[in-house]
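Hey L., structure's done. Input below.
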Amino acid sequence: MQNKRILKLILSLFVLFSMISANATIILNLGIVHKKGLGVDEGHILISEVHELKLLENGEEFTVTMKNGVGVEFKVFFVQNLNDFGPSPLVAITGNIYNSQGDLLKSITENDFTIPLNTEKKLVFTGDTSQEVIIKITPTLY
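Output:
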């Protein structure tokens, strides 16, 4: 009788754990830096940056836009491995990066941008009008 209660308790905890781990939340530490050359002869550079922490569910989309028009539209999700239980240690990001004129600077696919949890990844994109956009992303679990 006592063994059945212990077995039920263990089974209940297992089901509860699997429900919690299946709905893991991603904390995304995002930093965007925009550099724009003002005077080529004088070497002046205008730098704008924004930093945000996002709490996101698996598959959730988000947008971050700076005052000068530079922005990103991303979708974040776990890269599932059938052999792993719970949330994957890899996070994939897809989306678009726009320059200050609103033109598409780069389109990101899952193959381009897969990040292990608790690891920072840095992307640098250079436009043809002396602009540079630097994106730093660090995903962690909530």
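Residues 25-141 form one domain. The first strand starts at residue 25 and ends at 39.

-- N.
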